[in-house]
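Entry 14. Ran structure prediction on the chain below.
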Amino acid sequence: MKLNKLGRRLLVPLLVLMLTLPQAASAAAESTEQTKDSELEILQEVLDYLDAYNIEGTQRQEFIDNAIRGMIYTLDDPYSDYLTPDDMEQFAGSINQEYIGIGITLRYAKDKLYITGVLDGSPAKNTGLKQGDIITKINGVPVADMEDIDLSGQAGTVIRITIKRGSDSLTFPVKRTEFSLTSVTGKLIPSSKIGYISIASFSENADEEFAKVLTSLRNQGMKSMVLDLRDNLGGYVESAQNIASQFMKNGTLMYTADQSGKLEKVNITDGKDIGMPVTILTNEWTASASEILTGALHDNGIAKVVGAQTYGKARIQNVFQLSNGGYLKMTIERYLTPNKEDFNYIGLKPDIEITGHPVAQLVTGLYKAGLKHMELSGSAYSLKVNGVELSGYIDTVQSGSKVYIPSKVLAALVQGNTTWNKTAQKLVVTELSGKKTGFTLASKSIKIIDDESYVELHDFKQKFPDLKWSFQQGIIHLSY
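Output, structure tokens:
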């Protein structure tokens, strides 16, 4: 969703047009006004009765808020809503990556809460928390499951984080603060000249951030791009449109249709040709403005798509400020891709479908972008690709001398895919050449953990001798 950027805010007033009606229409207009007056009188009548006889003590404003919500909910539209001023502030803040916290990212795995990242300049960084620390207590309360994880609180308040680091147990008092995350990050994979750009949200400034990252990577010699839109729930349409203009000089962004149902083409004009191969990564949480950009680049022949089928939100909302201080977030348009595909509630299907593991998607995307040699280093809280730290993880399971890692990661590493033969209880890896290689439960070559298959590395290397690996201090190293 994107509103007029002149205001630089999500909020816009409701525009009321005063029309001069022809005399022939005046009677109909008068009848319509009388109907509206009658409807408003009924609502006022209910409020008067509630004020006079209600014994529950509910506030008048709450009645009005809930009446508005009732009208919105009857639309059966999951994207339309009524927002209070506080709701609106949180909604706009989430799009613009504005948060109150201590500046860490987390992952709960194998009954442990890992710090997967510490933001530069954050309270957590300044206090001394590090990537790989395991949080054992929050304000003295042990972390035993997901329900124990609550870092929320007001800016300026202190939270006590107890962590395990090696054999040490340390406690850090950290003050929460307000901060904004950048929406766009980028890195160059060494020697390959492949640029990796991630867009976390189409915030107000995402288009400017993207332009800066793109220029920086071009200056470093980028010749091919992986554009990561996974887990990007959308944001402002105008930001997505401005970013699309960095890829195509002229083309169709999408088609839109309002209440009339008439399709209107939205064009990109006076943009720039990207001039390099582009691979887009998607998953089931790639939504809204992310799908606009994905559909535009794919249908204009600019990008190939790798990953999982997208969320399926082909609807655009606008936000109208109401006289009571609240806001009406309402669906005003549907949109189709340049190829006129209406994918609402369906999603966009990728060119190469990779489901089940984010690292497998990333590896496949990098191969598609032209990477020839892959080196992975990962743990439950970290990931490096050819020495470059990226968001992700690789879980390992050790059983005596045997080491297991997710089958989808290994299959992607050898540029294959996996299927499960239920009758034979066998995992089959199929390479690009069509060659099939099997690993069975009976031989203990695989394990099934939480519905995910893991392959034993000694056995995998026997059948794929070009694989090199080592496992030291919880870090798995893989190269192929």
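The mean pLDDT is 90. Will compare against last week's run tomorrow.
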